[in-house]
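S1.2 Input.
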Amino acid sequence: MTDLSLSDQTIAGKTAPPSEARALRLPTQWLGVAPFFIFAIMFLILPTLYLMLGAFQNGAGEFTLENIIALSQPTIVAAYWISIKISLASSLIGAFAGLAIAIAIVRGGLPEWIRSATLTFSGVASNFAGVPLAFAFLATLGRLGLATVILNTVFGLNIYAHGFNILSFWGLTLTYVYFQIPLMVVIIVPAIDGLKKEWGEAAATLGATQTQFWRMVVIPVIWPSFLGTVILLFANAFGAIATAYALTGSSLNIVPILLYAQIRGDVLHNPHLGYAIAFGMIVITGLANVFYIWFRTRSERWLK
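S1.3 Output.
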């Protein structure tokens, strides 16, 4: 027994590193994610903290609540309300349209190359925003845009005579829908892929129709993912500024443009009020992301 114990200790000594060596081991496994944490701290966490701190300061750096109270001004409240309506409208339209596309390419029996092409395009289009997107919509649906001219000359339909304006609420909403639909497709496809074939077979064995299967199984399972994605699309549209500013300039009073005017503008220059407006946006988008994570967690319990 003693010999075996000594042999075991010898083998263990050869295979297991000494405690001193383990203590001196460098945490190299963290080097790969170090750039991410550095980037997040420098460009996300620190600027957010700076904005939040500036919202409760005046020009002299003293603590004040005047900036937060000033958020109740009618123009600022109207800007928040318009931004919420645009974000909600674009997120709902994008969510339902994206869900229909995702169901078609995943469970619609279409060729595989349709799915690959759609997902590839969606990955690109979901990040296509800013000045190029604004110019594309002006060239397409502006007063002299390609689609506007075709509708007017071929079909005799003058959309501007019927009240449409690319620089209006619905014009900006339609522009946002361009990147909302692809983003919905990219996010919801994995949830639809998670629907197990066994569920459909079990429902068919029990005598359920296809309508009953979708109403009692599919919709309850993907409902949390759908709601979570709608909230994520809302936050995505609520914080967009480049597309809105390039498309409408200052003609549409939405929160990101008002924020830009307060911090960088020549007329409405009040940086600390701009910080307070940004603080309000952080609160709204933060709540949206909290609900998104909650819905996402609920959906993952079924889709694992």
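S1.4 Remarks. The mean pLDDT is 85.
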